[in-house]
Structure formats: C-alpha cells, structure tokens
Amino acid sequence: MLPRWPFSRSLLYPLTAILVALTVLPVGLAGWGFVTTNREQVATLEKQYLTRQGVGLAREVELYFLDSVGRIESVAQALRPVQGQQLQAAAASEVLNELVRANRHIVLLRVLDASGKGSFVQNRALSTTSESELGPVLAEAFTTNLRGRPVRRDLLRLPGEAPMVLVSLPLMGQGGVVAGVMQGVVSLEGVVARLAEEGGRGVTVDVVDKTGNVIFSSDPTRVGKSARTHPLVAQFLEAPVRLTKTYDDPLRPARDEVLGSLCPVEDPPWAVVAARDVGVAFAAVRNMAEKTALLAVGTALVAMAAGVLLARRITSPLRNLADVSTAVAQGDFTRQVPVTSRNELGQLAENFNVMAVEIDRYVRSLQHALQENKELLVDSIRALAAAIDAKSPYTRGHSERVSQYAVAIAGHCGISGGELEKVEIAALLHDVGKIGIEDAILQKPDALTDSEFAQMRIHTVKGAAIVSPIKRLREMLPGIRSHHENWGGGGYPDGLVGEQIPVVARIIAAADVFDAMTTQRPYQNAMGLEYVFKRMRELSGARLDPAMVDAFFAAIQRGDLVPLGRVEVA
C-alpha cells in the first residue's frame, strides 16, 4: 500500500501535471519514433517475404513443367531412331509405363509411327466428353508433327478436367525424315492445388499469361478475367521483371488496397502475382502503434495516482527495459525483461517480452525460408546435373559422385563452411557444358577423332557460358571452366599451369579422374582400385596437383572418400 503524502490541493494538480508531462511526453515521443522507425523496417521485411513467396511459387511452376514436360521431351530424344534403324513404336511401351509411374501428373503418353500405329499408355481414364474433344487435338498435332514441327499447348482445357498441357514431338529418323511422333498430356492439377493451399494462408495468388488473362488463381472467381489494368500485370506485359508494391486490386469488387509481388516464370512464359491485404500485411505496425498509445495513457494514470514516490520505482524497471531493448536491438532475443509487478510497467514488460519472442520467431522463419531456398537451389542443380549425366547410361550419377569425392578432398585441404559448399556446387555443375555436346560424341564407344575431341573440349567453355548469367553461381565458374587444366601444362581451355589453376578446379580434376577410372565407360572398363591408386600417384605433378593427390589419399585412409561407382577390384 502506498504511503499517504500530505499534498495540499494547490500542489497536487500542478505536480500531477508536471509528472504527466515528464512521463507521458518522453514515452509518447519515444513510441512515435519507434513506430516511425520500425514501420519502414516491418514494411520492408513484409515486402521481402512476399517477394520470396512469389519467387518460390514461380520456381515451383517451372519445376512442375520441367518434371513433366521436360521428362517427356527427354524421353522423346531418347526414342529417336539411331542411324540405320527404324522406329520401334510398339516396343516403347515399357519406356512409357516407366515415365507414367515416375510422374503421376502425366495423363497419357503414346508413341506412333508415321502410319499412326504404336504404343499407348493412359494413367487415368477421362470422361467421354473429354476423350471426344481430346482426340481431334491429338490428331491435329500428329499431322503437324509429320511435317517436322513440334506442338506444345501450355493450357488445354477439357470438360470436367483440370487444365492440361499437350506436348507432341516429331521423332526424326535418318535423313531428317519423320519416323514417328511422341505425344503426352500432363494435368496441371498440382498447380491448382498448390495455389489453393496458398489461398488458405490469407494470400491471393494469380497466374497470368502473356495476354494478361488470369489462367490460375487461389480464388476461383478470378480465373478467366482480364488483368491488363492490374498495375503489376501491366508491368509484366511491358517487361517481365520482378516487382513488389502496394496498389488497389482492380479484380476485387471494392478495389481493396493490397501489397503484391510479381515474379515472371521463364517456361512457360507466365507470371505469378502474390498479394496480401495491406491491413493484414502491416498489422504488426498498427498493433505496435496501439500498444505505444496505450503505454502513454497507462503511464499518465500511474503518474497521477502514484506521484513522486513512484518516480524511483519507475527508474529500476525502465533501466531493465532499456538494457534488454538494447540487447534485442543488437540481435540477442534471449534476454527477457523481469516482470516485478502487475501495473502498467509490468504489462509493458510482458508486451515487450512477447514482442521480442515474436520478432525472434519471425527472424527464425526468415532464416528457415532462406535455408529452404538454398536447399531448393542445390536440389535444382542436382536435378540438372542428373539430367545431363542421363544423356549417357555410362555417366549416370557421375556429377553426384564427383561432387562427393571433391567435398571429401576439399575437407582434407582445410576448406570448410561456405567455401566447401562452393566446391560441392561447382563439382555438380562441372559437366553442365555437355548439354551442348552431341549425343553421338558423348556415347561413342570408340576413341574420338580429332574433330570430335575438339568439340568435346569446348564443354568447359560452354558450361561457364551457361552458368555465368546466374549471379549466385558466378563463384563456381573457375571450377567449371578450368577442371581440365593440367598441373604440368597442356590442359584446356586456357593452358594454365600449376598455381595459375584455381584451387577448386584442381580439386574437381582429382575427383573427376578418380571417378572416370573406377566406372564403366564406353571406351574403357572400370579399373581395379589397386591400379587406380597407382595411376593417381603417377598423375601427381603431371595431370594433377600433388597436394590434391595427397588430400585424396588422406580422405581414402580416413574413410571420408568411398568409391561410389561400379569398381572392379584387381
């Protein structure tokens, strides 16, 4: 209980007014400054979050097409008859069934010879109406393919079915003659389900095409509407760039103000627009302002009720709050303000602790999202490397093995942390340039001619050219371009010698040589480990950096490097 002070009526009100002024004004000004300063920060964080969300969804759409349409195109390449052979359309059934089992979104596949006969695989039955409408579309595409022209319709709508993609590709035979046709129909129900999932989280997601029409949306009422007057879509139609801003949504009846982010999709040429109501997006700022106002009012009441006696009692909790707020401002979210009372200051401490916990949770969620994006990048790179290796049955898994070997060697060179991740990714991408090398050269069982070897040598330059436009992968260029340089000279493409060769390229070179000798190749059988180890020592100082060879054997001895290929033990 507070002691009674003999205040006269003439002093009570002036003193109360002074205490209110001295207490409320600083708190009010500090709160206003806090709100003003953090409003922009919170707004920036929200924009960054929404931008990442849009980028992630756009990437998911791209990967959806890559995983389905891309696989169909890859299989079509593999089914083309080689020189001197005829298309065996009926024998393609096993390949088609395997592809359908690998991707549940593929509705049907078929391979037909030029007369229209062949294999047909259907993942699930379509309605009679859909079958009747799909038949003429497939027939028209077949006719176009026989003229040597591919057909792809990214948005095919059939009655009672989710939107679909039609891919119809000519299979070219000897002399450029069309030997047959491969046709596939892929359901986009996965894209529709993914957008519906985002809609349940309070985010409106639209996918628009190059004409400005909404083709998919988390809100079904928006599908089919023209969004050409939409600020972000108008920018996309003019130039496909990423953009995040606030605007009035023209597709909403009340033209509500929203915070939206646009991210183009490279293939197909669509764009993803993710939007959230401004009131929801900036709710944290509004709550922060309300709490600051309540704090000022509460402090005034405390000053009027407690008087001078509470001044000293106020000092201690405010000092604790200042210390903890400083720690929080410096990134230490584990500090908590001691709650020693149930008055307004205690409520302030509790609110601050809750706010610190929420900020910590939000920061962790951003870190988690960053890690997921990083994992998505690495997984995408692994998928690309696997797709390149799959061009030849002898190199399947080569890039993955070289990456694991390179990481083990780098670890014994004292490389760790972010630099070790660069080695891993560079090794995964070291043969990306082979995507531009003809299959006939890659799969040739005999020794290459001089002209063929000259074409093979440029895969390092092609790989660097493919990766160089990607800003996040530019640090991997030395490993991609220079992994065929020789320590003693005579390598390619630049003829570098010794220390001129980047360290990451020297590491990849050792891993690449080891995998080449321990796996089955068209021009050689897998060698025994005893012979391979002897050969690695012989290449030290000539083809390979001696330090990397030493690190290789250190990794072998420690068990950090275990051959993953089909090794023949001598």
Main sheet overview: 5 strands, antiparallel
Q: Extract low-pLDDT stretches.
A: 1-13, 566-570
Separate helix tally: 18
Give the helix proportion (percent range).
Answer: 40-55%
Q: How are helices and strands ordered from N to C?
A: HHEEHEEEHEEHEEEHHHHHHHHHHHHH
DSSP, total strands: 10
Silhouette: flat
| Terminal-residue CA separation | 92 Å
What class would the helix/strand composition place it in?
alpha+beta
Roughly what fraction of the amino acids lie in strands?
5-15%
Radius of gyration: 33 Å
Arithmetic mean of pLDDT: 81
Strand order of the largest sheet: 2-1-5-4-3
Number of domains: 2
Core attributes:
alpha+beta, disordered N terminus, flat, 2 domains, 5-stranded antiparallel sheet, Hypothetical protein af1432, 570 residues
Question: How does this structure look, described?
Answer:
This protein has 18 helices and ten strands. The chain is α+β, with helices and mostly antiparallel strands. It has helices spanning 9-79, 93-102, 128-146, 189-199, 231-238, 278-281, 283-306, 309-329, 344-389, 398-411, 417-428, 439-442, 450-457, 459-467, 477-482, 503-518, 529-539, 546-558, and strands at 106-113, 118-122, 151-156, 164-172, 178-187, 204-208, 214-217, 243-248, 257-264, 271-277. Helix content is 54%, strand content 12%. The chain has two domains: 11-307, no CATH class; 391-558, Hypothetical protein af1432 (Orthogonal Bundle).
